Amino acid sequence: MKYAGVVLLCWGTVLHAAGPQLILHNAKIVTVDPTFSIQQAMAVEGNRIVAIGREGDILPLRTADTDVLDLGGRMVMPGLIDSHVHACDAAMTEFDHPIGDMESVRDVLDYFRTRAGVLEDGQWIVLEQVFITRLREQRYPTRAELDEAAPDNPCVFRTGPDASLNTSALQLSGIDRDFRITDGGPGYIEKDPQTGEPTGILRSCTRCIKSREPGRQPGEQDRCERLRTLLQDYSSVGITGICEGDASQGDLDLYGRLLERGELPVRVAAQYHVDTIGPVEDIEQSIRKVAEHPLRRGGPMLRVIGVKVYLDGGMLTGSAYMSRPWGVSTIYAIDDPNYRGVLFIPKDRLLPMVRTAGECGLQFTAHTVGDGAVQTLVGVYDELSRTMPIRDLRHCITHSNFMSPETVRKVGDLGVIPLVQPAWLYLDTRTLVRQFGYDRLRWFQPLRSLLDAGAVVAGGSDHMQKVGSLRSINPYDPFLGMWTTLTRRAKWYEGQLHPEESLTREQAIRLYTINCARAMFLDREVGSLEKGKLADFIVLDTDLLNCPVDAIRDAKVLRTYSDGRLVFKR
Question: Where do the domains of the chain lie, and which CATH numbers do they carry?
Answer without folding.
Answer: 1-79+528-570 (2.30.40.10), 83-87+220-526 (3.20.20.140), 96-208 (3.10.310.70)
